């Protein structure tokens, strides 16, 4: 395949708007974050690498739960916002196409990788690097768009792995990978992970008041996100 997303930090152009959108937005605050936080489990006293940390919404919550947070994002503006929102954390501007050479092997208890895998061109290499910095008894929590929803929206073959470009409702232009669930599972396997749990979350109950129609739709249709908890394979 010749398709690439590339190394441009796409979200840098609308980082402040994204913070405003995601802080209490339906999909982020009441759908993705509850699912991922449930898979992370108890965080008090644990170290967590927040990959593609964005404006710090996860980081602030993790710090509040007693975690030591290290974050990275490709967008310099996102890192500025993250430092403002979670000053107790340690944050780095970093492209996932590069090695995490500032972190030693087995440095963290958890890795959170929420809604960003689709922006990475060499996903296996990035996942291998995340496995390297995880402790042997650690866990990776990853969320991504539900591939069934992607296919229903985009058409074509469900099994095609391809890059698409969309303009979202606020005028944000984004470029990212579409891939079936099988491909994500195989990439995790190639990177040395075992799948422990997979969630197809439903919106949190309070979201019904925000948008009853969207709440009803996501409660019955796989058109939103999914979340995976994976652990390092001890045989590899």
TrEMBL record:
Source organism, top-level taxon: Bacteria
GO molecular function terms noted in the UniProt entry: S-adenosylmethionine-dependent methyltransferase activity
GO biological process, one term: methylation
Keywords: Methyltransferase, Transferase
Gene3D superfamilies, A to Z: Vaccinia Virus protein VP39 (3.40.50.150)
UniProt xrefs under InterPro entries: Methyltransf_11, Methyltransf_Superfamily, SAM-dependent_MTases_sf
SUPFAM superfamilies: S-adenosyl-L-methionine-dependent methyltransferases
Protein name: SAM-dependent methyltransferase
Origin species: Prauserella muralis
Taxonomy of the source species: Bacteria, Bacillati, Actinomycetota, Actinomycetes, Pseudonocardiales
């Amino acid at each position: 395949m010749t398709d690439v997303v590339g190394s441009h930090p796409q979200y840098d152009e609308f980082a402040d708007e994204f913070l405003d959108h995601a802080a209490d937005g339906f999909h982020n605050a009441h759908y993705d974050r509850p699912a991922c936080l449930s898979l992370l489990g108890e965080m008090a006293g644990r170290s967590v690498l927040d990959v593609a940390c964005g404006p710090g919404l996860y980081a602030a919550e993790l710090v509040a739960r007693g975690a030591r947070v290290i974050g990275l994002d490709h967008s310099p503006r996102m890192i500025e916002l993250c430092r403002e929102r979670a000053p107790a954390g340690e944050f780095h501007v970093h492209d996932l196409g590069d090695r995490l050479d500032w972190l030693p092997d087995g440095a963290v208890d958890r890795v959170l990788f929420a809604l960003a895998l689709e922006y990475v061109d060499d996903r296996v290499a990035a996942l291998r690097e995340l496995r390297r910095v995880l402790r042997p008894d650690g866990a990776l929590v990853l969320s991504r768009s539900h591939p069934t929803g992607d296919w229903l929206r985009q058409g074509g073959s469900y099994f095609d792995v391809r890059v698409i470009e969309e303009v979202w409702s606020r005028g944000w232009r984004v470029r990212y990978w579409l891939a079936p669930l099988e491909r994500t599972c195989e990439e995790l396997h190639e990177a040395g992970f075992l799948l422990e749990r997979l969630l197809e979350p439903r919106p949190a109950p309070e979201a019904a008041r925000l948008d009853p129609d969207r709440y009803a739709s996501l409660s019955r249709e796989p058109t939103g996100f999914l979340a995976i908890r994976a652990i390092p394979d001890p045989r590899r």
